[in-house]
Write a structure and sequence with these properties.
Blueprint: E1 6-12, H1 17-26, E2 32-39, H2 48-53, E3 60-61, H3 64-68, H4 71-78, E4 83-86, H5 95-100, E5 105-109, H6 124-132, E6 137-144, E7 154-161, H7 168-196
Parallel strand pairs: 1-2, 1-4, 2-3, 4-5
Antiparallel strand pairs: 5-6, 6-7
Helix pairs in contact: 1-7, 6-7
This protein binds glycinamide ribonucleotide (GAR).
The site of glycinamide ribonucleotide has 16 residues, from α1, β5 and α7.
Length: about 200
C-alpha cells in the first residue's frame, strides 16, 4: 500500500534555522513532503535562501501584497499544500490564509506563552523582554495559528533555564536548540494525528 504524503509549506522571514531543522527531519519521509519554502524578505535580508540552497532546496520570495491579497494562498493551493508551518515568520497572517488552513497551520514562538507573546513580541524582542523581567525560565511554544497573534491553542511547550549571565543572544541560542529538537517532531505528531483521526 502506498501512502500519499502530506504536503507542507514552510513560511519564514529570517535565518531559517528552524526551516533547516524541519527540512532535515522530513528528508526521505514517506508521509510528509516539504513542498514549498517561502520567505517575505529579500535574499540580502534573510539567510534562509543560502541555507536551503545548500540543502538543494530553493526558497521562494513573496511580498507583502501577495500575502495580503490572497496571491500567496492561491500559490499554496495550486501547489496542493495541505499544511502550513511558520518558522520565524514575522508578519501577521491574514484572515483568509488562517481560514483556509485552520487546524492545519502551526507556529513556534520563542517563549512560554502566554508570557512574552503578542504584537511586537518576536525574535530578539522576546529574549530581551524575558531578561528585562528577570524571568528564571524561558522556552518554546508550538501552537495553532488563529487570527490573533500567539493566541491559538498550545500544542507543545518545552522550558529551559535563564542563566544569570545570559545575553539576549545566548538565551536565543538555548531556545533555538529546543526549537530545532522539538518543533519538527511536534509538526510530525500533529499531522499524524490529523491523518489518522
Ligand atoms: C525563532 O526563534 C522563532 O521562534 C522566532 O523567530 C526565530 C527565527 O529563527 N519566531 C517568532 O518570534 C515568532 N513570533 P530562524 O529564522 O533561525 O528559524
Amino acid at each position: 500500500m502506498s501512502v500519499v504524503p502530506t504536503r507542507i509549506a514552510i513560511l519564514a522571514s529570517g535565518s531559517g534555522s528552524n526551516a533547516e531543522a524541519i527540512l532535515r527531519h522530513f528528508e526521505g519521509s514517506e508521509t510528509v513532503d516539504v513542498a514549498f519554502v517561502g520567505c517575505n524578505r529579500q535574499e540580502s535580508q534573510a539567510g534562509i535562501y543560502e541555507r536551503t540552497r545548500q540543502m538543494g532546496v530553493e526558497t521562494t520570495r513573496f511580498n507583502k501584497a501577495e500575502l495580503l491579497d490572497g496571491g500567496l494562498l492561491q500559490a499554496l493551493q495550486s501547489k496542493g499544500i495541505d499544511w502550513v508551518v511558520l518558522a520565524g515568520f514575522l508578519m501577521h497572517i491574514p484572515e483568509g490564509l488562517v481560514r483556509a488552513y485552520r487546524g492545519r497551520m502551526l507556529n513556534v514562538h520563542p517563549s512560554l506563552l502566554p508570557k512574552f507573546g503578542g504584537k511586537g513580541m518576536y525574535g530578539m524582542h522576546v529574549h530581551r523582554a524575558v531578561l528585562d523581567a528577570n524571568a528564571t525560565e524561558s522556552g518554546i511554544t508550538v501552537h495553532w495559528v488563529t487570527e490573533a497573534y500567539d493566541e491559538g491553542a498550545v500544542v507543545f511547550q518545552a522550558a529551559c533555564a535563564v542563566e544569570p549571565n545570559d545575553t539576549p543572544e545566548s538565551l536565543a541560542e538555548r531556545v533555538k536548540e529546543l526549537e530545532h529538537m522539538y518543533y519538527p517532531r511536534a509538526i510530525a505528531a500533529c499531522i499524524a494525528e490529523h491523518v489518522t483521526s
